[in-house]
């Protein structure tokens, strides 16, 4: 079985588990250090994904938001990078906009990726050099357009003038709580781009970054560099993902 097919099967199993807890008052805990909530659904999905994926690829490393990082992954040639539920707050609130985010990384670069939204039955997938799809239909990111006509997925702090070279460009701003879903929507061409300037956990964006790239867009750190994954500290320097306006966004940043 190809890595991508393995991720697709695992994501669908994860969705079946998560739906049992959705809108069913799952137990919720607050993580230490202000890292946000985690539910029993996150933990159940994480256990299942780790068991299934590591059984199929025991030589791959493992990095997940809900598994303590022992750094053994850095001695492996390939790694799974997983967020069992990206958008846990949305999950708790009963929104449909949470996702399972699964990637395989080799030499710091994603080579297979799935972002799956079970309640929407939307499965975004990509393999390096093979394009990106939504439920089997090929995706194409938005082509060039002026920033003044663009709609970007991002949070309110992003429009603080301190982040911009010559004032905030006149783009429209909207939001989805899951970073993985934001990236997938850019790949789908429904939005022109997404921005996050905070240090960004690898498990939130590894899968979505490949899906954007394979849809003909570009996903980079906020300084315009290709993101490198499987770092000792698993964060990257923000993310800017877009179709044709990607370089315009990078040029406008302070």
From TrEMBL:
Segment forming the signal sequence: none
Cofactor section: Mg(2+)
Enzyme class: hydrolase
Binding sites annotated in the UniProt record for Mg(2+): 65, 83, 85-86, 204
This enzyme's EC code(s): 3.1.3.25
Keyword Magnesium set for record: yes
Taxonomic superkingdom: Bacteria
Annotated keywords: Hydrolase, Magnesium, Metal-binding
Gene Ontology terms describing biological process: inositol metabolic process; phosphatidylinositol phosphate biosynthetic process; signal transduction
Family: Belongs to the inositol monophosphatase superfamily.
PANTHER family listed in its UniProt record: INOSITOL MONOPHOSPHATASE, INOSITOL-1-MONOPHOSPHATASE-RELATED
Protein name: Inositol-1-monophosphatase
Naturally occurring in which organism (per UniProt): Pseudooctadecabacter jejudonensis
């Amino acid at each position: 079985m190809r890595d991508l097919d393995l991720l697709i099967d695992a994501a669908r199993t994860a969705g079946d588990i998560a739906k049992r807890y959705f809108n069913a008052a799952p137990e919720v805990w607050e993580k230490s250090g202000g890292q946000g909530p985690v539910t029993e659904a996150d933990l159940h999905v994480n256990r299942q994904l780790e068991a299934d994926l590591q059984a199929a690829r025991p030589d791959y490393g493992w990095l997940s938001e809900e598994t303590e990082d022992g750094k053994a992954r850095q001695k492996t040639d390939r790694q799974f990078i997983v967020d069992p539920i990206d958008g846990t707050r949305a999950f708790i609130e009963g929104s449909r906009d949470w996702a399972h985010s699964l990637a395989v990384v080799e030499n710091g670069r994603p080579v297979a990726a799935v972002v799956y939204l079970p309640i929407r039955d939307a499965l975004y997938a990509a393999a390096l050099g093979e394009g990106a799809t939504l439920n089997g239909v090929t995706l194409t990111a938005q082509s060039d357009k002026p920033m003044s006509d663009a709609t970007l997925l991002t949070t309110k702090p992003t429009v603080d003038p301190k982040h911009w070279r010559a004032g905030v460009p006149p783009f429209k701003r909207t939001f989805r709580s899951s970073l993985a879903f934001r990236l997938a929507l850019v790949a789908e061409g429904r939005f022109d781009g997404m921005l996050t300037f905070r240090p960004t956990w690898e498990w939130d964006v590894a899968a979505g970054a490949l899906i954007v790239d394979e849809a003909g867009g570009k996903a980079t750190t906020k300084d315009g560099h290709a993101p490198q994954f499987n770092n000792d500290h698993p964060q990257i320097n923000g993310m800017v993902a877009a179709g044709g306006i990607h370089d315009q966004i990078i040029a406008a940043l302070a």
